[in-house]
């Protein structure tokens, strides 16, 4: 037997028991009269002690130990003279009677403790060592726990977990596909799924009624801090449901997670239409932990001789509470901020509504105090507040104002990581016009149902058609999204036509689905949550990387495996691939 207890288990009640532990040597402190060893495993750390008077054999063995050796020790549990109240085993130590070295270790490339000296790249290369650190392991334990809670919750509502294939067919659904060459069908390729979307719909046609899967998805996109080329979704689909049914079940799931994991009782989730989200927050994923909703000042601002505003399609403002005392320098910083290429505004107009009721603005040359008072009234500003205005093309200015609002939220400390404000964003447009390719794209995906009352406009005014689509947004992050689907092959064909597919193209790519719809498709809908993101939010992390056991770096590389990598001439030949 390698162990009677784990390294996190022993307490004062165990004093005088003879126990056996196995684990990794985290630290050795030789104080002359005594040597202390911190022994670590997944469950915790237990202090081992060897006295100067111990048999020579043991003292010798201890002298030969190094960091990260794997050892097994037998000994007696003693009450510690000086207790450590920072760890659960801090009341006791083990007086070593026998040591067995199970595995030696080279000196590790960084210290494996909460505060490590290892840089990012090094820790990624030796990820298995980084995973020994409590801080990293904790995130994976949380991930496990959340997956377990999700499974139990969905199981209790009769969702069935079904695995869908990973080698599928390349279909354009937003992002680029990862493809896998087929040896047996040379010149042909599988694609890795961007999501199991069509399969889960086929499972509904098959009568499975309620499906879920915690599943890997693959998207060959440019990477950002919170993106990985492979990531995990909680993917779900239900039959005989309307939007309301789907929202209820999954609102329940999120509330269950918050309750169990963070001890938070969430109130019912508010709903916001996509239109309002854009109009008041400039984003389809509004952070509603704080106010500063946008105020449309276009009409009020176009009354004087200020060409910048007069030529703008939209003039919008946020009212920043209590910031009328901002200095020249602070205002310059904000102007610099909005002019950064990532934000892209041309300039910033400010209006200080001073405590004494007077106004001071960067456009005093053009507007009177009465004009500015009218703006302040429209923005419900109080003396002491600061108005910040951006102007330009509406669909460009809204996201810029969104960046500015978030920046002000940060500056004022209004974006507390431990405060959670989820909401549903609903009624997305069905289609999105792309200037570059001069065609419409499905905003969600081509299987999303238009709102029935808008179906008539699909041909005459496609841009105005709203979809039965919804996103769950928490603190400015989209954590999940889904829709009620089209379950009628006619309507699906119409949708493909709106997207500019010819009959043949639609048939070639999605014939299997439209065919299936000919054999009795139930009304259905579903949703998918980004599991990595959800875990990172619950863990209070900025990146999803540390919720994944073996993540890729920002260039999509696995630095531990050194992948992607070249393959041999032989493999290429077998696959019938010639490199350019
Ligand atoms: N398949 C969709 C996605 O990955 C989610 C859904 O519509 O259920 O975004």
Sheet with most strands: 8 strands, mixed
Small molecules bound in the structure, each named once: aspartic acid
Share in β-strands = 15-25%
Mean pLDDT over all positions: 96
Helix content: 25-40%
Describe this protein's structure.
Helix content is 29%, strand content 24%. It is α+β, with helices and mostly antiparallel strands and 580 residues long. It has three domains: 12-103, OB fold (Dihydrolipoamide Acetyltransferase, E2P), CATH 2.40.50.140; 138-272 and 423-547, BirA Bifunctional Protein, domain 2; 290-415, Gyrase A, domain 2 (2-Layer Sandwich), CATH 3.30.1360. The strands form five sheets. It has an eight-stranded mixed sheet, sandwiched between helices. It has a five-stranded mixed β-barrel with strand order 1-2-3-5-4. Strand 20 and strand 21 form a beta hairpin. It starts with 17 loop residues before the first strand and ends in a 5-residue tail after the last helix. The model has no long low-confidence stretch (mean pLDDT 96). Aspartic acid is lined by residues 195, 197, 481-483, 526-528.
Topology:
Elements: E1 18-30, E2 34-41, E3 44-51, H1 56-63, E4 70-79, E5 92-103, H2 120-125, H3 127-130, H4 134-156, E6 160-161, E7 179-181, E8 189-191, H5 197-205, E9 210-218, E10 230-239, H6 243-262, E11 271-273, H7 274-281, E12 295-296, H8 298-301, H9 307-310, E13 314-320, H10 328-339, E14 349-353, E15 359-361, H11 369-378, E16 386-392, H12 394-411, E17 422-426, E18 431-434, E19 439-442, H13 457-460, E20 469-474, E21 477-484, H14 489-498, H15 503-516, E22 524-530, H16 531-539, H17 569-575
Helix pairs in contact: 4-6, 4-16, 7-12, 14-15
Bound molecules: aspartic acid.
């Amino acid at each position: 037997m390698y162990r009677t207890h784990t390294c996190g288990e022993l307490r004062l009640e165990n004093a005088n028991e003879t126990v056996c532990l196995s684990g990794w040597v985290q630290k050795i402190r030789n104080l002359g009269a005594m040597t202390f060893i911190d022994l670590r495993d997944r469950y915790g750390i237990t202090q081992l002690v060897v006295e100067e008077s111990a048999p020579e054999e043991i003292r010798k063995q201890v002298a030969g130990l190094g960091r990260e050796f794997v050892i097994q020790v037998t000994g007696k549990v003693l009450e510690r003279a000086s207790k450590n109240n920072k760890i659960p085993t801090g009341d006791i130590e083990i007086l070593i009677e026998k040591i067995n070295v199970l595995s030696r270790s080279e000196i590790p490339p960084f210290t494996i403790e909460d505060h490590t000296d290892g840089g990012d790249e090094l820790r990624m290369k030796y990820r298995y060592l980084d995973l020994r650190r409590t801080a990293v392991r904790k995130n994976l334990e949380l991930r496990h726990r959340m997956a377990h809670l999700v499974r139990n919750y969905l199981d209790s509502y009769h969702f069935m977990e079904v695995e869908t294939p990973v080698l599928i067919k390349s279909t354009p659904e937003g992002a680029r596909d990862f493809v896998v060459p087929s040896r047996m069908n040379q010149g042909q390729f599988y694609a890795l799924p961007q999501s199991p979307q069509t399969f889960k719909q086929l499972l509904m046609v098959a009568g499975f009624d309620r499906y879920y899967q915690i599943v890997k998805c693959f998207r060959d996109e440019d990477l950002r801090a919170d993106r990985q080329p492979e990531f995990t979704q909680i993917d779900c689909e239900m039959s005989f449901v309307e939007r309301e049914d789907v929202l209820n079940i999954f609102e329940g799931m999120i509330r269950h997670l918050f309750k169990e994991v963070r001890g938070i009782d969430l109130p019912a989730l508010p709903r916001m239409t996509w239109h309002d989200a854009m109009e008041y927050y400039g984003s389809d994923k509004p952070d509603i932990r704080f106010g500063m909703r946008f105020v449309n000042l276009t009409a009020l601002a176009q009354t004087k001789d200020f060409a910048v505003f007069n030529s703008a399609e939209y003039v919008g403002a946020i009212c920043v509470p209590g910031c009328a005392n901002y200095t020249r320098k602070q205002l310059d910083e904000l102007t610099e901020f909005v002019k950064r290429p990532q934000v892209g505004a041309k300039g910033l107009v400010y209006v200080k509504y001073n405590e004494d009721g007077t106004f001071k603005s960067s456009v005093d040359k053009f507007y009177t105090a009465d004009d500015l008072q009218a703006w302040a009234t429209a923005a419900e500003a109080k003396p002491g507040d600061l108005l910040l205005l951006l102007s330009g093309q509406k669909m460009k200015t809204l996201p810029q104002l969104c960046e500015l609002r978030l920046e002000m939220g940060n500056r004022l400390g209004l974006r507390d990581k431990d405060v959670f404000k989820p909401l549903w964003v609903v009624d997305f447009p069905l289609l999105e016009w792309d200037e570059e390719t001069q065609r419409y794209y499905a905003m969600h995906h081509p299987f999303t149902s238009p709102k029935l009352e808008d179906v008539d406009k699909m041909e005459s005014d496609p841009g105005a058609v709203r979809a039965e689509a919804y996103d769950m947004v928490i603190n400015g992050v989209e954590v999940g999204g889904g829709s009620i689907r089209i379950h009628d092959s006619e309507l699906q064909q119409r949708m493909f036509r709106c997207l500019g597919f010819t009959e043949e193209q639609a048939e070639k790519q999605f014939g299997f689905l439209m065919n299936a719809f000919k054999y009795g498709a139930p009304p259905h809908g579903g949703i998918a949550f980004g599991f990595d993101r959800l875990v990172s939010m619950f863990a209070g992390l900025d990146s999803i990387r540390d919720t994944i056991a073996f993540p890729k770096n920002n260039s999509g590389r696995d630095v531990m495996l050194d992948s992607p990598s070249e393959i041999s001439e032989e493999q290429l030949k077998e696959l019938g691939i010639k490199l350019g």
